[in-house]
Write a structure and sequence with these properties.
about 300 residues, disordered C terminus, 5-stranded parallel sheet, alpha/beta
């Protein structure tokens, strides 16, 4: 028994020395590591000039260093592509008919949880300032967010939890969505986002969102002149509200004038052939025709 234990102890010591000499992973791994180290040490230095394929990729725009302080490079990057669009959804609308949900499915905007904060402009009916060109920089840097809820259930929305100090109102606009067509201010999510983008100078992005819907062009058709006035004359919130008041005053005056001078719809129809014949015929001929008719 003593000889047996002595033999096992000797074999164990020999195995330990072999493992120590080989290192971790065995002799094969150690040899491969040494070969790789030798190859790296003997690898020639790279030339100083730029590789042709790298130059070609830079010219084609395949790889760009976004950290370069080059104004032209920054201008080439689409400003609309950098705008963050988001939405808080409170489940008041039919998912299949909700324009905001459709934009989320197409990955045009992001869906936020109620607990998530948003640091950009938030379109809220409880805001005290109207969106204007003053907000263009904030929209471009931090983004734009809309609250998707029912106009009849505003009291159920926890607007205080969504407060971030950058809430904005949309000015007077007419809805073109199928649910509220022709109603002032009752805009859908896509209409609200597009209007805010248009007013802050991101018209291309606004049209991109509206093109997703078949009726999107109708929103621009109904509000084109007013959107242009908001975008060009609305430098501040006060300017936007002034444009809104001027438009409403002009619309009321036009409606009042129309009521005081009703249109004679008979003037809109072309004259009938019988009236033309009566105006161009002699009285005798008219009596003769009437007599012949009476006989029949």
């Amino acid at each position: 028994r003593v000889g047996r234990w002595a033999g096992e102890k000797e074999r164990a010591a020999k195995y330990k020395m072999t493992r120590k000499s080989r290192g971790r992973g065995g002799r094969g791994v150690a040899n491969r590591k040494q070969s790789f180290h030798d190859a790296v040490e003997n690898f020639p230095d790279a030339p100083d000039e730029k590789r042709p394929d790298a130059e070609a990729s830079d010219e084609d725009g395949g790889s760009q260093d976004l950290g370069e302080d080059d104004e032209n490079d920054g201008a080439d990057v689409s400003e609309d592509a950098e705008i963050k669009l988001a939405m808080w959804d409170f489940g008041h609308c039919d998912i299949k008919k909700c324009s905001g949900r459709k934009l989320c499915r197409l990955r045009k905007i992001s869906l936020l949880r109620t607990s998530q904060r948003f640091h950009g402009v938030v379109l809220s009916p409880l805001a005290t300032r109207a969106i204007s060109r003053d907000d263009a920089q904030l929209v471009g840097e931090k983004g734009l967010c809309v609250v998707d809820c029912s106009w009849n259930r505003l009291d159920e929305v926890p607007f205080r939890r969504l407060h971030n100090g950058h809430e904005r109102l949309l000015p007077f606009l007419v809805a073109a969505n199928p649910a509220h067509y022709g109603r002032p201010c009752e805009l859908s999510c896509v209409e609200a986002l597009s209007a805010a983008l248009y007013i802050t100078g991101h018209a291309d992005k606004a049209m991109e969102l509206l093109r997703v819907f078949k009726w999107g062009h109708a929103f621009v058709s109904l509000n084109q002149s007013l959107l242009d006035r908001y975008a060009t004359e609305g430098s501040t919130s006060a300017d936007v509200l002034r444009v809104q008041e001027d438009y409403i005053r002009e619309a009321k005056a036009a409606a009042q004038s129309k009521r005081s001078n009703p249109t004679d719809y008979n003037d809109l129809y072309p004259p009938s052939s019988s009236e033309d014949e009566l105006e161009g015929s002699d009285p005798g001929e008219g009596d003769s025709d009437a007599g012949e008719g009476g006989e029949g």
